[in-house]
Amino acid sequence: MTVHAVTIWGEPVLHRRAAEVTQFDDDLRALIEDMHETNDAANGVGLAAPQIGVGLRIFVYKYENDDGVPPRGALVNPRLTLSKVPGSLPDPEEDEEGCLSVPGESYPLQRADWARVEGFDGDGKPVDFVATGWFARVMQHEYDHLDGKLYVDKLVDRYARKAKKAAKKHGWGTPGLTWMPGVDPDPFGH
After folding, report:
1. What is the pLDDT of residue 66?
2. How far apart are CA 41 and CA 55, in angstroms?
3. HSE-CB for 182 with a 13 A CA cutoff
4. What sign does the dihedral 37-18-185-133 (CA atoms) show?
5. Pick from 107, 113, 115, 116: nearest CA to 86
6. Whether 7 contacts 52, CB under 8 Å
7. How far is Cα 82 from Cα 140, in angstroms, rounded to an integer?
8. How far is 115 from 134, CA to CA, in rounded Å?
9. Three-state DSSP state, 102
């Protein structure tokens, strides 16, 4: 198993729709194990394949939940059905979100309260469950990566401006930027 560098905001693979997985084989399972290893080293709750430079529709998660779903898993070619996203402004205390590809920054974002998640595991077996609360947030965040969206793309104006200012300060927005979990300092201070 290998820990991969995490791509940063501006890397092209993060900003385009990932391709469907067509083969469930040992290479796919090895990639999923590498993704789990990378997510663990980064102290993440989830990691999408584009975040390690792989443009495929896969994400892994590690999140204790109250939905009867194993706390660690992988989703291949997932589909999400969401409850309505509240129209109110996000609560800066309750709705703050971060991302390994926007290292060290976090901003409030409104998300749906629940998500039905369908797809496949690394062996091609069907997966179907409902995620609620923060677990639903994790599912939505990782799924967005597969459609070429970062959570900062969805922020309300006030926070979008702050995110763009931070990106400029850090020199993000260009290809080739990464950070290495387990080597570089943890950007979120875990």
Report:
1. 96
2. 21
3. 9
4. negative
5. 113
6. yes
7. 9
8. 11
9. coil
- Tell me, yes or no, if the pTM score tops 0.90: yes
Helical residues (DSSP H) of 42-117, grouped into ranges:
none
* Contact residues for 179 (Cβ-Cβ < 8 A; gap 6+): 5, 6, 8, 103, 187
Model confidence over 20-50: pLDDT tens digits?
999 999 999 999 999 999 999 999 999 999 9
Residue listed under structure tokens 């950007």? 187
Which ranges of the chain would DSSP assign to H, the alpha helix?
26-41, 133-146, 157-170
DSSP 3-state helix, strand, coil percentages of the chain (rounded to 5)? 30, 25, 45
The answer to whether the CB of 136 falls within 8 A of the CB of 112 is yes
3-state secondary structure of 169: helix
The alpha carbon of residue 106 and the mean position of all alpha carbons in its chain are separated, in whole angstroms, by: 13
pLDDT in tens, 57-98: 999 999 999 999 999 999 999 999 999 999 899 999 999 999
Active site residue 142: yes
**Residue 140: partners with Cβ closer than 8 Å, 6 or more residues away:** 80, 82, 111, 112, 115
d(CA 57, CA 64): 23
Question: In angstroms, rounded to a whole number, what is the distance separating the alpha carbons of residues 110 and 116?
Answer: 17
Structure tokens at 131: 């995620």
Terminal CA-CA length for the chain: 22
30 CB neighbour count, 10 Å cutoff: 13
